[in-house]
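Fold Annotation — chain and its backbone

Encoding — discrete vocabulary of local shapes
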Amino acid sequence: MKLFRMAAVLAVLAGPAFAQDAPHINLLADTPSKTDDEKAADAERDKAYKETLKKIPDAKASNDPWGGMRADPPKQPAPKASAATSTPKKPKSGGTAAN
């Protein structure tokens, strides 16, 4: 019984090694290469496709998916005041501060 277990473990561990040694099968059929006429037709088709893509205008649509759900347009952030123009804050008076 012990010998049977050892053989089973060896077979399980050796399985992946034998799978790597399988014959290499080409699943793609060997097709003849394209003729000059077929290559020219493909090139013409690609050229027409690229010209058609150039005719499509650039989309300038908003990227906001909830844009139609809002009642008012989104607010722009207020411009920040520069540090030189801001006035320093005065300390609060009252309390236990000693003068």
In short: Helices lie at 2-19, 36-55.
